[in-house]
């Protein structure tokens, strides 16, 4: 009986230690989970594992590759530039202050330093940073007063 209790305790303790890592961490102006701005494809694979899907296409900024991961995480690379965009629509992805998809616009305003909210071409955005090419920033996409997506990106042009 003692052995079974010890095994159960060990299993529960391990689950509690592992559980926080199951959700991505939104690092303002840096990245999401193991996908940081500037990381190589190999670095992202080492951090997040093999992508569920890989999409390649030509854009106005050159050839891009996007890795899709469980939890609605997408990581985009431009040729020769490393990660230029990390995006999440996952409900568990949060900043250190708890802001993420499902948060209210007011939560973003209250808990994300330096954020400004505006409507751009019909889309409601709350963003910080990335005013000039080469700068990093974080964008919270808002619909109906609620965050639906978070992007961490470097401004290309």
What does this structure look like?
By secondary structure, the chain is an alpha+beta fold. The chain has a single domain (23-154), classed as 3-Layer(aba) Sandwich (Pathogenesis-related Protein p14a), CATH 3.40.33. Helices cover 20% and strands 40% of the residues. It is built from three helices and eleven strands. The strands form two sheets. The protein has an eight-stranded antiparallel β-sheet, with helices on one face. It has a three-stranded antiparallel β-sheet with strand order 1-2-3. The termini are far apart.
Layout of strands and helices, then pairs:
Blueprint: H1 2-18, E1 26-27, E2 31-32, E3 35-36, H2 41-48, E4 53-59, E5 62-69, E6 73-78, E7 82-88, H3 105-111, E8 116-120, E9 123-129, E10 136-143, E11 146-154
Antiparallel strand pairs: 1-2, 2-3, 4-5, 5-6, 6-7, 7-11, 8-9, 9-10, 10-11
Short description:
The chain is α+β, with helices and mostly antiparallel strands. The chain has helices at about 1-20, 40-50, 105-110, and strands spanning about 25, 30, 35, 55-60, 60-70, 75-80, 80-90, 115-120, 125-130, 135-145, 145-155.
* CATH class value: Alpha Beta
- Which whole number gives the mean pLDDT? 85
Based on secondary structure, the structural category is: alpha+beta
Shape: globular
Overall radius of gyration: 18 Å
Cα distance spanning the termini: 65 Å
Number of strands: 11
**What is the CATH topology descriptor?**
Pathogenesis-related Protein p14a
How is the biggest beta sheet arranged? Answer: 8 strands, antiparallel
Look at the structure and name the CATH superfamily: CAP
**How much of the polypeptide forms β-strand, as a percent range?**
35-45%
String of helices and strands: HEEEHEEEEHEEEE
Q: What is the count of helical runs?
A: 3
């Amino acid at each position: 009986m003692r052995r079974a209790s010890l095994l159960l305790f060990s299993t529960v303790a391990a689950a509690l230690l592992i559980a926080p890592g199951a959700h991505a961490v939104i690092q303002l102006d840096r990245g999401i989970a193991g996908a940081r701005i500037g990381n190589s494809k190999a670095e992202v694979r080492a951090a997040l594992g093999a992508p569920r899907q890989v999409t390649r296409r030509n854009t106005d900024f050159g050839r891009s590759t996007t890795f899709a991961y469980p939890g609605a995480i997408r990581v985009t690379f431009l040729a020769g530039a490393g990660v230029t965009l990390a995006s999440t629509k996952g409900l568990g992805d949060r900043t250190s202050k708890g802001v993420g998809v499902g948060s209210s616009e007011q939560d973003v305003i209250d808990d994300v330093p330096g954020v400004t909210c505006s409507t751009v071409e019909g889309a409601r955005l709350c963003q910080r940073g990335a005013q000039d090419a080469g700068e990093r920033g974080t964008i919270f996409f808002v619909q109906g007063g609620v965050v639906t997506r978070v992007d961490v990106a470097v401004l290309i042009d």
